[in-house]
Amino acid sequence: MSGLSPFARRLRRYYFWYTISFISFVGFLAVGEQMGMSPGVIGHVFLFATIAIYAGIGVMSRTADVTEYYVAGRRVPAMFNGMATAADWMSAASYIGLAGTLYFSGFEGLAFVTGWTGGFVLVALLLAPYLRKFGQYTIPDFLGARYQGNAARVVGLVAAVIASFVYLVAQIYGVGLITSRFVSVEFEIGLFVGLAGILVCSFLGGMRAVTWTQVAQYVILIVAYLVPVTILSYKVTGVPVAPAMYGTVLGNLSEKENELFTDDAEVAVRKQFKQRAGDYAAKIEHLPDSLDAERRELIERLNALRLNNAPARDIAHTERALRDLPRTPEQARHVWERARAEAIERSRPPPRHAQAHPGDTPEQREAARNNFLALVFVLMVGTAALPHVLMRYYTTPGVVEARKSVFWALFFIFLLYVTAPAYAVFAKWEVYNNLIGTSIAMLPNWLVSWGKVGMVNIEDINGDGILQLAELSLNTDVILLATPEIAGLPYVISGLVAAGGLAAALSTADGLLLTISNALSHDLYYKVINPGASTQRRLVIAKSQLLVVAVVAAWVASLRPDNILFMVGLAFSIAAAAFFPALVLGIFWKRANRPGAVAGMLAGPAVTIYYFVRTHAFFGGSMDNAWFDISPISSGVFGVPLGFLTIVLVSLLTPPPPAEVGALVDYVRYPRLPADDPGIFTESK
Q1: Which of 115, 314, 334, 422 pairs with 289 at a CA distance of 20 to 30 A?
Q2: Do you know which NCBIfam families this protein is assigned to (predicted)?
Q3: Residues 578 and 161 sit within 8 Å (Cβ to Cβ)
């Protein structure tokens, strides 16, 4: 403690008592539940109490100082910057989506853990210390200085806005999901309730407020993540150390999979879904006649039901089917293609949890392996190129602290990632043993609750009244949030998990909003449009842009474009293709020049977005258009090499950069130079 500054010691004291207070708060609610406090009250208290904490920190951290607003005054100690980076990093994708992906994909989901963890090694080795030595405010700042002017800066800020916006949509989607379930409001209303919590921090105090809020949010999210799985580990194995014990349960789970997948009723149900997929294929093939025939059939059935005084439920069901029938052949093709894809998915047994690169044929197994490696690559490189993460290293007092903060960030992230596989195994064990094979009439209430927000679907396709595995459809994002209910834990644990998910989504959303608004206000308005703008005007522009972006992102999230993890994967691909080649070559290759960087930052993201649009169903694409069977989430695997190749070739074919660029590279690369030239930059370091 003696080596710490008074500021760091004061921070440790504040956050120690904050942590104790939060744990006591959870204990108070647990006692309240035992005394009869309703789940609705617990959900509301968790939601609004945690948002009030973040709002309080935001209000106390409000500032009109440019350096405080953009980089928190460059005085964040390494450990606290590591906590803030971890919270900024562990978004709704890591907190909510990772356990669900591991639940459904098993071994294949480890690509996320491997890629994301490995990415911080690249950050520590290739980027963080050098960007901190550069010492400006944003990533486009570095691009503008290194590649001489506004061309590279503008291309960089456009890429930063696109990648961060896609990432932001995923976070706001997670906020809406949590608030709609635990406060019992419509999903769209939940989006804007959570949005208020996001804005109150980033709007008032910029990076200063966001940093200290993210430290507080990390405490909540890690406590919320570890407590349920520790209890569940004790319940299932008798030992409350989930990472050490889930391997034993995984062995038993493999035996349970053998039993379920070969069950006669299960096989029959999957055949029925396969038949349904064939029926949809026939309808699609015979459009528009098949649409007219189905409309006539429904009208005739409805008339017959009414004439025969059929039960009101049957009449209402037929009326709803007629009302929901697509209006045009184009709509029918889209709706039936999605229904066919869902039926095909349900007709196949899920991959075995411990099986690496599953597939029925050698070609399918090779495609699975290629996708695994492509995803690991994209996530590693994307981690090292995300603007909102790299910005955090501008906030430390110096280069040494920047390196140390990467270590602390890895440690704090490790606590969650080493536990995520255990969540998936324990949750699947509970579902397979205590849910599958039970009477549909006796299913637990959590299935109904999550069904209301569209995250759970049950269809008794064979009409036997018993739930088969194929008849249960769970959204990836529901696994973690519903695990306490799946395991029958007290509702206060469910509220705690929701509070942690909210903290994860809000912390990352704050950082992303700040990245976007800073790019628009600092890099576009101040650096390009109006270099003479006053400090006050710059902050007004930043805050107004922040509001606009937040509202637009909430609207896009309300469209539910995909699950959280998939949207985040796209953001990683775009960031990797846009920034990683330009940043790495800008630091380590003096010959890289402005034409090369601009061409590379355009070519990489362009092919990445093109591939995604061509292969993702949301944009009308299909995997029939895929290259080497690579999933759209890994589209950056094509953009990153193209970005490197383009920068190298164009740089070699055009004149080299001037001597001052070489001086800038030397300044950034080496710890001490006899003649550091502060005139290299346009602003003070």
Answers
A1: 314
A2: Na_symport_lg
A3: no
